[in-house]
Structure formats: structure tokens, C-alpha cells
Amino acid sequence: MNSHTSSNDSAVHHTLRTVFGFESFRPNQETIITSILTGKDVFAVMPTGGGKSLCYQLPALLREGTAVVISPLISLMKDQVDAARENGIAAVFMNSSLDQRELADIHRRLKGNQVKLLYIAPERFAMPQFIETLKGLPLSLFAIDEAHCISEWGHDFRPDYLSLSAIPIQFPGIPVAAFTATATEKVQQDIIHKIGLRKPHEVRASFNRPNLFYQVEPKTEVEQQLLDFLAGHEGESGIIYRTTRDAVTATAGFLASRGVKALPYHAGLPAEERQRNQEAFNRDEAQVIVATVAFGMGIDKSNVRFVVHADLPKHIEAYYQETGRAGRDGAPAHCLLFFSRGDIPKIRYFIDKTPDERERAIALEKLNQTVRFASHNVCRRRQLLSFFGEAYPGENCGACDICSGSVVQVDISLDAKILMSAMARTNERFGINHIIDIVTGADTKRIRELGHDAVKTYGAGRHKDKSHWRFIVDELLAQELIRQDGEYPVLKLTAKGAQALTGTGQVFGLKREEARKNAGKRKTSDAEGFDRALFERLRAVRRRLAEEQRVPPYVIFSDKTLHEMCRHFPVTSSAMRRIAGVGDVKLERYGGDFLEAIKTYGEKKD
Ligand code: ADP
Ligand code: MG
Ligand code: ZN
Q1: Rounded CA separation 286/280 (Å)
Q2: Does residue 484 sit in helix, strand or coil?
Q3: Ligand found nearest the CA of 399
Q4: Ligand 1 in contact with 209 (CB < 6 A)?
Q5: Rounded Cα distance, 32 and 35, in Å
Q6: Strand 304-309 versus strand 237-241 pairing type
Q7: Model confidence over 461-501: pLDDT tens digits?
Q8: Beta carbons within 10 angstroms of residue 569's beta carbon
Q9: What is the Å distance from ligand 1's center to 51 Cα?
């Protein structure tokens, strides 16, 4: 290592500590920063919450001139500029929401070399005048956020992004760094090609989100289940996804009637109300937002502590994106899916209406993947990662319902055989209820008429109740030993099932009784061991300061930073400075308020 890089090295770490208040980098941040500092282009796929902003903000501080950050949404831009300013970084944004006077002021500050970060919307690159303005300025780098928007192959294509290909041509000497949270290999190459990145340093980070706990629960009375879950998450921010607008309205209304500060969000609401509800959630004024998938893009709220799916998500990728909005700050967060096979026909209904046969087949396979995710006895994290072509290295992830032992494996070999035998002996021509009637020895007219009381396994399972047999059916469906078929769905054996029926192999199922009792009782405070009462007080301080500054509370300090304070109880300025997320400027601005609250709390407690 030569002296130049090592002095750079220490400058990088020094800035990380003093400006951002962090002791160490998250994975990949350091190599990305080093590449930009040496003038190289970068392309990086990092998951939500991976810390992409810091990858361009830090080098922007160390290089001469202004960094231009391209970001697709006005609402995001404002929050990011607020967050950067709270760290004492000279940041501004330029978009259609500004008037002439404000624009002139920004131009003046740009010319005076007083801006380190300039956030803009992509359409500005289609304006030759704007390019001329930039050419007159010393520039440090270009950062393109949500870079997947430039690819037609991605899921959020924005034609405006195509004009960004002008950047490497018009500004040949300036490094360009592109970031996204979602890109397959194919989309990645497309993005690099479309922007015209020059031999970029490419980074594909792991999609694993270690601080997220994944859980699937059988869905019964979902609104009551939501209420039970929320009882264990008092005061924590979260998103509840529902499939339809009607369900959103109903659930938000139900929760509000039970005293939960919940607001609805869906594309059918007037734009103004939507905006207002999103803002209330962002500022911690509403605890819960009940939403369709229309909600999510455009918020950077780092303290989302749970994401609950009250209905089956459309596909695994959507599920990953939606749950990904939890726990950006790195503190523990909970992802809960309420699963019922009853949701499948609703999705099937829409799939069946798709005219194109190929599209229909793809949609059906995606539905099957989601059902397998929810019903297989396999680590949820392993399943999600394998969807992105990533193998989870460990045996036990320790942070999903399967791995944490909140479900137990039971041997269901015998019951599986009883049930499958009843199916086989009636020529696989009957539905779930009738088969269960046979094994439980029900004395119905239909059974008698069909002579099914003479079937060998008739009544072989009468010592167990119907819900147990329903559980066996669900397990066998999940493991694809049996399948449902036809308009009035009858149960059929799959090849795998026929083999299991005659073979000697064992069949295992997952029992969730214990898990159900504990559902929603995982408070993040219990898991993390911090003082909950103090946290409540510090949250109130944060709320007050955020209102004064007119910024969202998480921009003052993240939940994770407050958790640390509630673990280490700093009462001196230097102890406060050691808390992750407390940089020099925040210490100066807010340190006193929080120190005081912690001291007062300590005195009362003694
Ligand atoms: P992304 O854009 O990748 O979703 P952000 O840039 O918004 O993620 O960062 C998410 C959170 O992680 C922010 O609260 C940020 O302060 C925090 N963060 C970023 N880098 C670090 C780090 N090195 N150590 C601790 N926290 C970090
Ligand atoms: Mg981001
Ligand atoms: Zn697991």
C-alpha cells in the first residue's frame, strides 16, 4: 500500500466516524468508495437497507466539487436531502417543486462551490441548458440511484432514465456510480450498457437481510390475528399489505375502531389523501399503514419494524421487495405472512382470465412458488435467497419460524398413508371434505349411498378430529404428494405421492400450535435487550425535535441508534459520541437533549 492510498484510507474512516457516526462499514461499502475515489465507474446491486447512500455521499465529501445524484422520486429526494443535512452535509435538490427564486438561489450556491450533493430528477438531463450549467461547475461524481429504472427488463422502467446515457459522453472525466436494489444478471448488463459505464467495478451483494425475522402463520380470522400481532408491537411502525382496495379500507377501519392509529393507502384514494397518509406514517403520527402494493416506492422510512401480509403476495419477488421495506436501519424487524389456501382461488381467478397462454403459465408457476414458500418445511430465508440464485451458507438461519423452533416437525407417515389410501380406494374422484369424512368414519347419506363405509380405511382415523385431517391434507398438498384437480377440485395422488403410499419412506409435517400461541409476542426489545421505557422517552424527544425541524423522526436518529442509547445509557458527551449513528453535527445539535433525557431517567430509576 503506498502512502497515497493509506492517507485516503484514514480520511475515509475519519469521515465515516465524524460525519456519519459509524465505526465500521457495511459489506461492500468500502470497496465501492475506494473505486469512486480512484475515479472508477461503479455498478452495485445492494439490498434495501444495505447502505447505498453512504457509498456516494462519503466520496462526495472527499472529492473536490459537487456530486450530482439522480433520484426518481420527488418525495424521496426531499427526505434524503433532509437526512444528509442533519449530518451537516451541504445538500440541495432541484426539481419541479421549486419556484424561480429557489432555483436561482441554488444556482448561486452551485456557482459559489457551496454544494456537496445536488439531487436531481432524471428528466433534467434532457435539458441542454442544464447540461451547460453542470459543465461550468467542478463535479466530483455522478450517482444514479434506482438505476434499474433505465432497463426495460426491470420492473420500473422510466423512459426519462434513458437520457442518463448522456453523462459519460458529456462528462468523460467524472466517475459514474449506479445503484439498485433489484437487478438480475441480465438487467445488470443492460443497465451498464444503457448508461455506458466504462469497465465499472461491479458489486452484487448478498440479498440476505439478517435483521429480518420471517414467519408464516395459518390465516383464520385475519383481522383479529392482526390485532393480536399489534398487541405485541405497541408503538412500533409497520405496514400491513392487503390485496384489494376494499380489504384495505375494511382493515384500516377495523383497526382504527380498536384504537390502533392506522391509515389506509391505495391507488383509489384521492392523491391528496394518499400523500397525507403517507406523510403521517413517515412522521410516526400514524403507527400503521394498511395498503395495497401501490405503497412502498418513495419512502425511505428506516424505522419500519414490521411488514405483515394479510393476503397471499403476488409472487416471491414482490414478497421480497415488500418485506424488504422493514428494518432498513439494521435493527430487528418482523415479516409475517398470514397464509390460507383459501386465497389461492382468488389469485387463480385472475390468472385464468389472462388471454396469453404463456403468460398464464408463468403466472401460475409464480403462484405455485409463493404457495411452496408459505407451506414447505424449509427455512424461509433459504427459500427467498434461492429464488435469487443465492445459496444460504448456514444450516440454521436462526431468524425464521422454521429455524427458530417455533414450529416442530412431527412424523405424519401413518396418517398420510391412511388418507392417501382412502383417496386411492375411491379412485381419486373425491374432494377434501369427503375424503376426510371417510377417514374419520362419518355417517353421512353420501357415504352410505356410495358405499364408502365399506372402504378399508373407513374410520381408520376417527380418533383424531377433522382439523387434524385438514392439517394432513395441507401438508400433503404443500409437499406435492397430492394435488387438487378440476373445477370441483378432487384430490389426486402425484407420482411422488403414489410412491410414498406404497413405499417405506417417512413423511414429516410441521405443527404450529406452539408458534400460534406465541405469534406476535416477539418484541424487538426482548430480542435485543434494551430498556423499553427509556426508548419510549427518547422516542418522544425525537418526535419533538423532528417537529421543530420539520423532518421525519428517523432522520434525526434511527431506531437502531436509539436502541443503542437504551443499551449503553450514555451520560457524557464522549459516551454519546460513541453511539453508532451519532456524528459530530448530530452530537452538537441533539446530543444535549438526549443526554438530558437519559440522565433524568437514570435519576428517577435509582
Ligand atoms: P439503501 O439506500 O441501500 O436502502 P440507506 O442508504 O438508506 O440504504 O441506508 C439504510 C440505513 O443504514 C440508514 O439508516 C443508514 O444510516 C444506515 N447505514 C448505512 N451505512 C451504515 C454503516 N456503515 N453502519 C451503520 N449503519 C449504516
Ligand atoms: Mg436508497
Ligand atoms: Zn431459517
Answers
A1: 5
A2: strand
A3: 3
A4: no
A5: 5
A6: parallel
A7: 999 988 889 889 988 987 889 988 776 789 999 999 999 99
A8: 15
A9: 3
Q: Residue 1 — very low, low, confident or very high, per pLDDT cuts 50/70/90?
A: very low
What residue type is 213 in one-letter code?
A: F
Q: Count other Cβ atoms within 10 Å, centred on residue 306.
A: 27
pLDDT at 44 over 80: yes
pLDDT one-digit tens code per residue, 294-344? 998 778 899 999 999 999 998 898 899 999 999 999 999 999 999 998 898
157 contact partners, CB below 8 Å, separation of at least 6: 149, 150, 151
- Residue 181 CA to residue 145 CA, distance in Å, equals 9
User: Ligand 1, atom 23: nearest CA belongs to which residue?
Assistant: 25
- Residue 288 φ/ψ, nearest 5 degrees: -125, 140
Which helix H or strand E contains 289, and what residues bound it? strand 288-291
Indicate whether 2 pLDDT > 80.
Answer: no
What is the rounded average pLDDT of the residues 157-170?
92
Q: Give the nearest ligand 1 atom to 16 CA.
A: 23
- Look up cell 430528477; give the residue: 121
Is 22 near ligand 1, meaning CB less than 6 Å away?
A: yes
d(CA 552, CA 329): 14
Are the beta carbons of 21 and 585 closer than 8 angstroms? no
**Sign of the torsion angle spanned by Cα atoms 341, 343, 345, 350:** negative
| 578 or 296, higher pLDDT | 578
| Block residue for cell numbers 416437525 | 409
119 pairs with which residues across the strands? 69, 93
d(CA 206, CA 331): 18
d(CA 433, CA 400): 32
Cell reading at 69: 445524484
Q: What's the 409 CA to ligand 3 centre distance in angstroms?
A: 14
Nearest residue by C-alpha to atom 18 in ligand 1 = 51
The whole-angstrom separation of Cα 281 and Cα 289 is 7
- Which of 28, 54, 119, 144 to mutate for ligand 1's pocket (most ligand atoms within 8 Å of CB)? 54
CA distance 208 to 46: 10
Q: How close is the Cα of 84 to the center of ligand 2, in Å?
A: 12
Beta strands 333-339 and 490-493 are: unpaired
